[in-house]
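Let us work through a complete example step by step.
Step 1: write down the sequence.
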Amino acid sequence: MALDFSKVLIAPSVLAADFANLGAQVRAVEAAGADWIHLDVMDGQFVDNISFGPAFCAAVRKQVAIPTDIHLMIERPDHYLERFLPNANNVTVHVEAQHDVANTLRRIREAGRQAGLSLRPGTPFEAVEPFLDQIDLLLVMTVEPGFGGQPFLPGMVGKIEAAAAVRARRGLAFHIQVDGGIDAPQASLCVASGANVLVAGTSVFGKPDYAQAIRALR
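Step 2: predict the structure and record it as tokens.
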């Protein structure tokens, strides 16, 4: 069955959640209409921050029925991959990390998970083009990865448009996801440019009404 890229999916990022009330918060965003739960794994090497690891992802997986969307912002995703696969529906790795990109993507898909590929703001779109027929999701970072709450970089819209154009021209089937500084105005811009999955941290978990925040993004 063909994927419906016209449907906008909202993936709240637990990086912006209150970890002391994590279970209640992820259950609440699921009840409020979230489509996926996004987990930003950082190792302090690939990005200048450390977030959480496989045990944390497993704890979140136990709390929700919606897909878990794990973004590995780590230097060696190939080495750590098997530790995350059991609690992931989607696993996204970076084209800039130190690994054989095609082999890592193949391993994710062979495990029955959706394979995602991401690129940082400073990386040209051409770096991911050779792999677009091997992925289920392309994540365009719209901030420099590492810390939540950063402002959206409007210059990244061109990469979203380029991805949508290549997808249409080559008859490919992958989600276009955006992550970083996504609030309602940026969401509209990204969707108009071709994105269909919106990662949202503070614009969901930072609002008093999760359902209203998700509706505003959608």
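Step 3: interpret the result. The helical segments are 22-31, 54-61, 77-84, 101-110, 157-170, 184-193, 202-205, 210-217.
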